[in-house]
Amino acid sequence: MEQQIYKGKLTQFHWLKIAKKEELTKNTFSLEFEIPENLKEEFRFEAGQFVSLKFQSHDKEVINDYSMTSAPYEKKIALGIKINSPDGATSELFKNYHVGDELLVSEPGGRFTLISKPHEFRTIVGFAAGIGITPILSHFKNILHNEPRTRLFLFFGNKSSEDLIYRDALDNLARAYGDRLQIFYFYSQEKTANSFFYGRLDEKKLSLIINQILHLDDTDEESTIWDAVDDVLICGKGEMIKSLANACYHHGIPKKNIHFELFEEFNDDIYPVEKEFPLIENVELAFKMLGKEYKTELPTNEERILQQLLIQKFQVPYSCKSGICGSCECILEEGEVELLENEYLTESEEEKGHILACMSIAKSKKIKLNFDLS
């Protein structure tokens, strides 16, 4: 076992053997790991979570996060991985590691999760683009297995049919659970017989989906399927998430029921900031990170705390800058801030003073933070 400070937290890594490797499309592949009996407890996970892989690429150590496609009841760790460029780290991972090799794999993490409600009648809608299908596949398998009263709708976008991953797995689920699962495929760079399924998943497409697919509800003649939606799952690139999350919200889904997972750095807000704050100049900021104490001054409180620290070249942990990933989670030890959006922290964590630096505006002249959470 190996420990390492990663993204501000102490993360546990273990050597796991690759049990299966499969090329899915020309730029995606899957890895499945063998979990020894003595590590079963460490690798328990919830649907929608991810693990980090630590490996060598071009003589450098790389740590990347990959979502699991496996569901907890399958008792295995299976990952879907996209090769972004021929010379990138994931390309090296695909070329250099094979069945029987060992990799350092972190214990599962992430909060793109749902509370299981096996005794309730629920409607859940998923939107995915490309490799963003991975955690949603985990969710859908888990829900279909554990919640006999829940119905699911999946809208899955890809550039073309050649780029569509996990088609067989998804179609098998649809055949096995046809009364509770409907899947619709969309292509942005391939003409379709029905023009409805051509184009990107965005706010315009959502309006069409609501009006043409999620309209008549056989279980309740006085309402639509969209009216019955309990939760929405979205996974893909930042612009897609922003577009669909806002569209879902404007079509009546509460923000707390819109869950999203980001697969790349995204510097924009998911939801528009609707609040204004009194200007504070020369904010004194002290913070602890990796055991060291730092002090600096923020010119004003017009920008979020994380963004200002990055401008000043401090190596603070972050990934998305959008309040989704939780990498910049820290404890507010002194002062007052406004947390603009929060897709990550629990209510109990907020009550204990935890904040997300990327979503926090200073509201007092002095601020003290602690990024060392463990």
TrEMBL record:
Which cofactors are named for this entry?
Answer: FAD
- An example Gene Ontology molecular-function term: oxidoreductase activity
Instruction: Specify the domain of life of the species encoding this protein.
Output: Bacteria
The record's Pfam families line, in alphabetical order, gives: FAD_binding_6 (PF00970), Fer2 (PF00111), NAD_binding_1 (PF00175)
2Fe-2S ferredoxin-type domain span: 283-374
Q: Where is the FAD-binding FR-type domain?
A: 11-115
| Keywords recorded for this protein, A-Z | 2Fe-2S, FAD, Flavoprotein, Iron, Iron-sulfur, Metal-binding, Oxidoreductase
PANTHER family per the UniProt record, alphabetical: 1,2-PHENYLACETYL-COA EPOXIDASE, SUBUNIT E, NADH OXIDOREDUCTASE HCR
Name-wise, this protein is Ring-1,2-phenylacetyl-CoA epoxidase subunit PaaE
Q: Which organism is it from?
A: Chryseobacterium arachidis
